[in-house]
Amino acid sequence: MDAVLMILNTVLEQLQKPTLAFLIAGMMLAALGSKFEVPEPVYKFIVIVLLLKVGMGAGMSVREAELVSLLVPALGAAAVGIGIVFLGRYTLAKMPGVSQVDALATVGLFGAVSASSLAAAMAILDDEGMYYEGFIGALYPFMDIAALVTAIVLAKMAKARREARDITVLADGTLAAGGGGTQTSDTTIEKGLLSGILIDTLRSPAISALLAGLGLGLLAEPGSVYGSFYEPLFRGLLSILMLIMGMEAWMRISELRKVAHSYLFYGICAPLVHGMLGFGVGIIAHELTGFSAGGVVLLAVMAASSSDISGPPTMRGALPEANPSAYVGTSTGIGTPVAILSIPLFIAMAEMVIG
Questions:
Q1: What are the Cα distances from residue 230, in Å, to 12, 53, 212, 294?
Q2: Higher pLDDT pick, 123 / 273
């Protein structure tokens, strides 16, 4: 009972902090029909600055980190991303009214990472004075790329199997299967899809900015510009991003009316389940390498979050037959807010388990 009260008290305290307060304020503005909006170029600028900042901070910290200390959480992050996709394949994809391609596009976004959720969690931990490794931002692409590539490959393979089952009777009375057979499709998947999707993901604006910042932090000396420009702007820009995310979250809830109610259930429950999975992997990393309590929280938040920047355009390009109102509406409209609002839960759990 005391543990439950402690968690509830932590949640209530965090709801009053600027990061979560701006998210809720954005949802209230949208609910009241406000005409307030932030221009799209400004939104993109904010995201790029935040990711450059996170990447540079990670890069500068990676230079001082022990290889094992970084390697174990990185491999764990990739495993979590892949595991989330396979979990969704056997849960969401099996629910009534949900097509397999829509389900895999959705779970791919849920396996990937929300930059805004990661930034929000970092800001909350900073407010709490809770230490976390500076290289945490470097874990972002491991989970992100692993999840997106896995989801897209599974969707393409499922499509190839469906085509193989489509039997056509030709004019001469012979039978043709799938317009060319499964082997050709599988060969195409093996030879071209994996490398193509990997390249597209690395070239996406979010991943590119993060990797650029990571490279600058690793190979250059960006400390002066980092401290004089990126660090002072971080909190203010993050508050605006949270306001935007809150408004988008409220507006996209209506899109779920066009699809099965299964997406609503998944969008609410999946972030918590995925976050627990990430938390468990973080605890393993803690036992093996001394991974900090703050690092465990951030790994859980990355697992709980769903991609709202790099994922949707990747899915549109790779799986054009998937319904955007399903995967974007579920991830941005439901998943991201639930993930951000669950941050206090993971903080309380880390304090209880690790201390």
A1: 30, 6, 14, 22
A2: 273
Q: Across the chain, where does the E strand assignment appear?
A: 167-169, 175-177
User: Which pair of tokens denotes residue 30?
Assistant: 């949208």
Q: Are 341 and 20 in contact (CB under 8 A)?
A: yes
Going by their DSSP bridges, the two strands 175-177 and 167-169 should be labelled as: antiparallel
Pairwise CA distance, residues 4 & 275, whole Å: 18
Task: Spell out the SS3 assignment of 263-300.
Answer: HHHHHHHHHHHHHHHHHHHHHHHHHHHCCCHHHHHHHH
CA separation for the pair 211, 206 (Å, rounded): 9
Average pLDDT score over residue span 53-72: 81
The letter for the amino acid at 247 is M
This prediction has a pTM of 0.75
Q: Distance from CA of residue 223 to its chain's centroid?
A: 28
CA 134/CA 346 separation, integer angstroms = 19
Is residue 189 within 8 Å of 157, Cβ to Cβ? yes
169 backbone dihedrals φ, ψ, rounded to 5° = -90, 120
Task: Specify burial of residue 96 (Cβ count, 10 A radius: 0-12, 13-18, 19+).
Answer: exposed
Among the listed residues 24, 202, 238, 210, the one whose alpha carbon sits nearest the alpha carbon of residue 116: 238
User: Does residue 156 carry a pLDDT above 60?
Assistant: yes
Q: Which of 6-10, 260-264, 284-288, 315-319 has the highest mean pLDDT?
A: 284-288
pLDDT in tens, 163-195: 666 545 445 545 455 544 444 444 544 455 567
Instruction: Tell me how far apart the alpha carbons of residues 336 and 147 are, in angstroms, rounded to a whole number.
Output: 16
The burial of 147, by beta-carbon neighbours within 10 Å (0-12 exposed, 13-18 middle, 19 or more buried), is given as buried
Contacts of residue 349, defined as CB under 8 A and 6 or more positions apart, other chains included, come to 7, 279, 300
Quick count: other Cβ atoms within 10 Å of Cβ 156? 21
Which of 55, 53, 37 has its CA nearest to residue 237? 53
Structure tokens given for 22: 């701006």
